[in-house]
Structures are given as C-alpha cells and as structure tokens.
Amino acid sequence: MSANTQIVESFWLARPSTTVAPDLLGCTLVRQFPDGETIRGMIVETEAYAPGDPACHAYRQRTPRNEAMFGAAGISYVYLIYGMYHCFNVVTDAEGVASAVLIRALQLDAPPKGFAAIPEKKLLRLAAGPGKLCKVLEIDRTLSGFPLGADQPLRLEHRSEDFQQAVEEGTINFVQTTRIGITKGIDLSWRWYLGNCTAVSQL
DNA sequence: AGTGGGATCTGT
DNA sequence: CAGATCCCACTA
After folding, report:
1. What is the rounded average pLDDT of the residues A49-66?
2. Which of A28, A68, A125, A136 suits a disulfide with A157, CB 3.0-4.6 Å?
3. Out of 3.40.50.300, 3.10.450.750, 3.10.300.10, 3.40.30.10, which CATH number does the structure's domain A10-194 have?
4. What's residue A7's pLDDT?
C-alpha cells in the first residue's frame, strides 16, 4: 500500500459538510491535465456550507448556479466570484441536500511546471487562498459538477500515513474558527485549518 | 430590463 | 482601503 491512496469511494463524503470539512484537512487535491501533467497540493484549510446556513449559496433557492451543490457527495462545485476568481468546493452529504466544503488553501509540494524556481516561503503562499489555488491549478467553472474520482481532471487522495500518525500523536493540530469573507452566518465556527501551517490563507 | 452584491486578491 | 471585473438572482 503506497503512502498516498487514491480515493475511489465517496461514501465518506456523504455526511454533513461540518463533519467532512475537518476530515479533508491533510488530504491531497490532484489536478491532472490532458497531457498528463499533474499538480498536487495538501488541503490545509476548509470551510463548511450547509442547509439553513445563510451564507450558503443554496440558502434561498435551487438555481442554475448552485445546482451542483444538490448533487451526490464527491462531485465538484466551482463558481466565479468578484468577476475574476474561481472557488472550488467538494460537494458533501446526501443527494438533494445542498452542502459543500470550500477548499481555501493548499500546500504545494513543488512549483507547478512552468513556474520559475521559487523559495520555499513563496511556494507555500502560492495556493494560500480559495481564489489563488484555483488560479494555480487552472480550475474554472467548466470543472463544476464532475466526480472527483480516478482519471478525472480533479481527484482526491487520502491522508498519508505519516500525516494520520502525526494527528494521532498530537504533532499536528486542527484549529476551528469562524468563516472568512462572508456577511451572513458570521457567528458559525465552520472554518478549519492546520495549526502551525504557513500555507493557510491568513497567517 | 436594470442592478447590486458577492465564500477574493493585489497594490497603495 | 480602493479597485478590478463578471455573473446572476432578485426586483420591477
């Protein structure tokens, strides 16, 4: 068994987004391009959005934009924000239940192809934010509504054994706070990130 | 048919 | 802290 195992089943995502969001920390998002090139990044920051949550895009109605949020667990939901940035979500919970986890920051293991060599410090800021990570991984709305499975342009990998062990030993800790950039539902502490990580959106 | 605000980021 | 820049849900 390799250190990184592809996630094929998505049953573990078919739970409330507030449960899935912390569980996604430490998992790896993989962007695969048609030419075979891949970009990999460990998820270090997430936010949950759920039914009854005024900050959720599906709070009012089912619309063409938020349609993907109602889909089965394990599909993507990508939307355009402020006319210039995209945000990537993992759809969670049962089909018909509009909920998702916003991926807010990735820790890249290496500079993507085409990027100049950069110091470690800068590398860790490259995908530190929901808009920035979509820019680096070239994620846009054409990738919305698709399963995050094997042989897909976007897929997930489980936590490495080292990561899981560090969590159990308490070397890595999770921090839970309120969400960022919203004007409604600001009281809910539905944001999680890795403590002591310099690749999160806000240091 | 018009419009206001948005799960952001960068530079001043 | 202003500005960039586009979509779309909502109002009328």
Report:
1. 97
2. A28
3. 3.10.300.10
4. 65
pTM of the model: 0.95
SS3 per-residue string spanning A133-150: HHHHCCCCHHHCCCECCC
Report, in ranges, which bases of strand C sit under 7 Å from a protein C-beta: 4-10
Question: Would the Cβ of A142 be found within 7 angstroms of any atom in strand C?
Answer: no
Q: Could you state, in order of their start, the residue ranges of all structural domains in chain A?
A: 10-194
- Write the pLDDT tens digit of every residue in A109-137: 999 998 888 999 999 999 999 999 999 99
- Of residues A114 and A173, the one with the higher pLDDT is A173
For residues A33 and A140, give the distance between their C-alpha atoms in angstroms, rounded to a whole number.
13
Distance, Å, A4 CA → C3 C1': 42
